[in-house]
Design brief:
It is built from four helices and no strands. The protein is mainly α. The protein folds into two domains: about 30 residues; about 45 residues, no CATH class.
Length: about 80
């Protein structure tokens, strides 16, 4: 049985096909993280904090919000940092 036949046989099952899709998506996101992520995952944004120094909630600039140091959470998630 060739690899192509094995993949076709496995993709008949919805759960296997979905799992393969998720795995391939994560691998592609990790390979192209520098092009996908909106910001450097380690860059601190002072505008990413409130006046009291608290992290920002999700908004139009930082889609998942910021952490305690003002770093973009979406970029950190994409990079896996």
């Amino acid at each position: 049985m060739s690899a192509l036949q094995l993949i076709k046989k496995l993709c008949r099952h919805k759960s296997v096909a979905f799992s393969l899709f998720v795995i391939v998506s994560v691998v592609l996101a990790s390979l192209f993280a520098s092009w996908i992520a909106p910001y450097d995952p380690n860059k601190q944004f002072f505008e990413g904090l409130t006046m009291e120094g608290a992290p920002l909630p999700p908004n139009s600039t930082f889609l998942l919000g910021t952490d305690l140091l003002g770093r973009d959470l979406l970029s950190r998630l994409i990079y896996g940092a």
